Amino acid sequence: MTVTRAEYCVIACAEAWRGDGEVLASPMGLIPSVGARLARRTFSPDLLMTDGEALLVGVDGTVEGWLPYRRHLALVTGGRRHVMMGASQIDRYGNQNISCIGDWARPKRQLLGVRGAPVNTLNNPTSYWVPRHSRRVFVEKVDMVCGVGYDHADGAPYHRIPRVVSDLGVFDFATPDHSMRLASVHPGVTVAQVREATGFDLVVPDEVPYTREPTERELRLIREVIDPQNARSREVGA
């Protein structure tokens, strides 16, 4: 059975929550949301998921508990949440920018703003999802630090960036200086393509594996249960 690029991205995002235990999963974006729900249904059954307002819900929408705002903040600031955010820019140490392009005083483009990125990244694990991998996103230095990278996180006890997932591959920071490393490429993608699309020198191991294949059960869940309308293909093309 042919697996699409979007489905490899779903699997790569789901793997971000493997082994997390009972933490609040906060996926931002379509592919991360499908990935989190897949992880909950398969290898990470203890994940907590919210309706975005005040309830903890199961993957089918069943109410499992109450999550008032003060309790949500306790999870956010105590390392008990793992969020997957987007990034307009990200650099070799995992600094993320979603605020502006260019000088902050006179930006060329105004984006979302800093939002909750500093609190997220300093106080709980944060992964990233980039649906269009390019040198405009993977930059030598972000124009503004919103999400805090490893070179700015001294003394933050819960700071951790488990992975970055793009439409080309999976990246982590498992290096002595916490600079970004190519962990896997999606099938059909070459290491040379990833290097060409990245604006800084990635750490690249001698052998780079492919992102793992989904199991038959995982494919069925993605296609028939979690995303039967195939909305994932609108975020990641063939």
TrEMBL record:
Coiled coil region boundaries: none
Organism in which the protein naturally occurs: Streptomyces doebereineriae
EC class of the enzyme, as a word: transferase
GO molecular function, one term: transferase activity
InterPro entries listed in its UniProt record: CoA_trans_fam_I, NagB/RpiA_transferase-like
Name by which UniProt lists this protein: CoA-transferase
E.C. no: 2.8.3.-
Similarity remark: Belongs to the 3-oxoacid CoA-transferase subunit B family.
Alphabetized PANTHER family for the sequence: ACETATE COA-TRANSFERASE YDIF, CHOLESTEROL RING-CLEAVING HYDROLASE IPDB SUBUNIT
Matches recorded under Gene3D superfamilies: Glutaconate Coenzyme A-transferase (3.40.1080.10)
Keywords of the record: Transferase
